[in-house]
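ARCHIVE CARD
Drawer: 12
Card no.: 0347
Subject: one protein chain, sequence and derived structure
Cross-reference: see card 0346
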Amino acid sequence: MKKQQGFTLIELLVVIAIIGVLSAVVLASLNTARTKGNDVGVKANLSTVTTQAALYLSDNNNTYGTFANAACPAVGDTGTGVFYNTTIENAIAAAILDSSGGSATCSSTDTAYAVAVSRPSGAAAPRRAPRRIPRMQWRCRGHQERRHPRRRIGASTVSARTAGSVIPPCPVRRAVRA
């Protein structure tokens, strides 16, 4: 009897199909990882905005200046207010780039500001397992400023801070006797 050498056509087609399915799964995972990486970049840039806005507030008589709820100013625009600070303009521009060409909306009053960066319409958000949103953590040590964490709301990442807000005193816990 003659020994068979090589593979049959069916065996080769099965192997090619398996390789095709595995490569599709890997490419989908890489795309999700890229999107998550962009989200981390947006959050880092909004953290820069938060830090720089705190410095702006202390340097400008505890006021952020007023800015209507509209698209954030572009880098190099002139004006007064927190969003015309060069570092803040650059951080917002970098956040827009990290969001794959989304948009940014800015708003401020004398005592508060908000920045929202969103993905472009039609861009898919990364799929995440459902999780419980943690409650805001309060610190209760005298009259420190309350820190507002960045929150994910739909397709937007929002960073907001209110100047001069104070934390209420910690509640006294009384022991309950059985």
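Annotation on reverse: Residues 41-119+142-162 form one domain. The mean pLDDT is 76.
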